[in-house]
Design brief:
Largest sheet: 6 strands, mixed
CATH architecture of the largest domain: 4-Layer Sandwich
Structural class: alpha/beta
Radius of gyration: 24 Å
Number of helices: 10
Shape: globular
Oligomer: single chain
Number of domains: 3
Strand order of the largest sheet: 5-6-9-10-11-14
CATH superfamily of the largest domain: Ribonuclease Z/Hydroxyacylglutathione hydrolase-like
Helix content: 10-25%
Strand content: 15-25%
CATH topology of the largest domain: Metallo-beta-lactamase, Chain A
CATH class of the largest domain: Alpha Beta
Low-confidence stretches: 281-293
Length: 341
């Protein structure tokens, strides 16, 4: 949250926002270069942060807010947090465009928040428990187009080239009096990727409930996630401390990961009480996407009384979870595993 204003300024400096020319834009009906989604209050926070710092962005942005109900908020949250921007005192910025207010469904979830059409990528949101309203995101990619089994097609007498293309497009062809249908040569359609990214939380079980709802409604074929990004702020021995601060420990995350049949788990948001894993440690974990590891460049004398992230990794690996585990680091690129079935 605190990094978002600075991140937007960094984008501005690098010129990576697919800029529009502000002077030629009508604030009432022009679309934004960057669309930001988050819980109620984000619009006001970002407006004030950019205004007070006199950040003069050269591109436009819009904040689309998930409207919170009482069940989405921790106790007494409304008593001390003003979420609504007062346009009489804090008018929209010149670079700000109108965002949508997105209301939850009766079951408490926010579905298809980006308003994509059917058979396109869907982003759903759910409320997760923290000391302030926090949100998790579920990204569901559309099913992949079925690929052609070239070997089978050749065995059926289909020559390489245009006719194979016709079969791939779903058209039936006739060769030497023999009919070849697409289903004869196309491999089974693979589902799209499913990726979940959780915000700060000590309980993200709503993600499991959302997956169950989608499965019951036949919107997904199984309760399986390809990648889950989830915090593990403290190790299991500090569970009570983590809970009081609204954060998670490995055992809690691993239980959820098993229930969701997660294939790749990315742990993040580690407390500064832990040092990076020493590169000289024979147990150092290397992720499978570039042989990168979370190494420490501190001397051993600096770390005598400071545990490393190895303790969190070991606790995560000691469970029944059978997927890959990655300890996240700044600017780490994570490759989503391919869907094979």
């Amino acid at each position: 949250m605190f990094g978002l204003p600075g991140f937007l300024c960094t984008i501005d400096q690098k010129g990576e926002a697919n800029n529009v020319i502000l002077e030629d834009s009508n604030p009432q009906n022009s679309s934004a270069s960057i669309n930001i989604y988050g819980p109620k209050g984000l619009r006001r926070f970002l407006r004030l942060a950019l205004a007070l710092s006199r950040a003069n962005l050269s591109y436009t942005y819009a904040v689309h807010e998930l409207i919170l109900e009482e069940k989405h908020c921790p106790p007494n949250w409304q008593d001390w947090a003003c979420l609504e921007a007062d346009i009489t005192r804090d008018p929209p910025l010149f670079c700000e465009r109108s965002g949508r207010d997105i209301f939850a469904n009766n079951d408490g979830f926010w579905y298809n928040i980006t308003n994509n059409e059917e058979n396109c990528e869907m982003v759903h949101a759910m409320s997760i428990k923290h000391t302030i309203p926090s949100v998790g995101w579920l990204i569901i990619k559309p099913d992949q187009s079925p690929s052609l089994c070239v070997e089978t097609a050749i065995k059926l007498g289909v020559p390489k080239g245009r006719l194979m293309g016709e079969l791939k497009r779903g058209n039936t062809i006739v060769i030497d009096g023999k009919t070849v249908r697409p289903e004869d040569v196309l491999k089974p359609r693979l589902r799209g990727h499913r990726i979940a990214i959780m915000g700060d939380t000590y309980d993200s079980s709503e993600l499991l409930r959302l997956m169950q709802v989608l499965h019951t409604a036949n919107q997904i074929t199984s309760i399986t996630l390809d990648t889950l990004v989830h915090e593990a702020t403290l190790d299991d021995s500090l569970y009570e401390d983590a809970l009081s601060k609204g954060h998670s420990v490995p055992s809690v995350v691993m239980k959820l990961a098993c229930q969701l049949n997660v294939r790749q788990l990315v742990l993040t948001h580690f407390s500064h009480r832990y040092d990076r894993i020493d590169s000289s440690d024979e147990n150092t974990i290397k992720n499978k996407i570039g042989e990168q590891a979370i190494y420490s460049n501190k001397s051993k004398s600096d770390k005598k009384n400071k545990p490393s992230l190895q303790i969190i990794l070991d606790q995560a690996k000691s469970t029944d979870f059978s997927g890959d585990i990655i300890l996240a680091d700044d600017q780490l690129l994570v490759k989503i595993p391919p869907v094979t079935q």
